[in-house]
Amino acid sequence: MSMGQSLAVANGCRVQLPSREIQLSVKRQSRKTIAIHILSKDEVEVRAPLKCAWREIDRFVDQKMAWIVKAAEECEPAKPPTRYLENSIHRYLGEELRLSLVRGKPAFVGVDNDFIVLRCMDPGNETLVRKHLEAWYRRQAERHLPARIAWLNRLFVDGVNVPRVTVRKMKARWGSCDGRNEVCINSLLMSKSQDEIDLVLVHELCHLRHFSHDKSFYGLLGRVMPDWQAREKALQA
Ligand SMILES: [Zn+2]
Predict the structure, then answer these.
(1) Superfamily of domain 89-236
(2) Stretch 134-139: mean pLDDT, rounded?
(3) CA-closest candidate to residue 152, choices 213, 189, 204
């Protein structure tokens, strides 16, 4: 199907682009207006009111087609799930390392050249391997981050105490602070480079001085870490 043709989205349709196709589907909902949701680079959902005429939906989609194509284009491809198999790539301190799985006990995880060597009783069990690997990231974070944050806190020269660091796995954030001189850091931050780790720690140290992301927060961040923007870009990449 190409742009401009009748869309007939009733049964779902495909928008053929030079290099790929976009799958369009319609979902009826109890709502007042039509909305378009870009689900992925090649999957778009049109949400329409229960009684909205198909002709009206077609017209709406037709009008928005250029926008849909552009928005879908800009949509990041869905990340494939992380695997925990022999030779799967995992990052540690910004380096790409390969998983080397060994059967045995006691359980052990350690870095050896370009490998993360992981020994456990059932190395074919991805859930178990993941559990051991995540526990190892957490131990590394608990071992290294408190000293690092103490060192970075000295850059502020304002006498504010070094915060207590707790480490846990967080879904959506690298760090958070509660305003009680305690910061919480995502254990998976250990997969990032030292520059990126330092950015997250300094960001939280700035929050101990300025709670919200206001002018004074960014002023302080810029003084303590002048290249914070480049580091943030790397962290989000
Ligand atoms: Zn923040």
Answers:
(1) Metalloproteases ("zincins"), catalytic domain (3.30.2010.10)
(2) 97
(3) 204
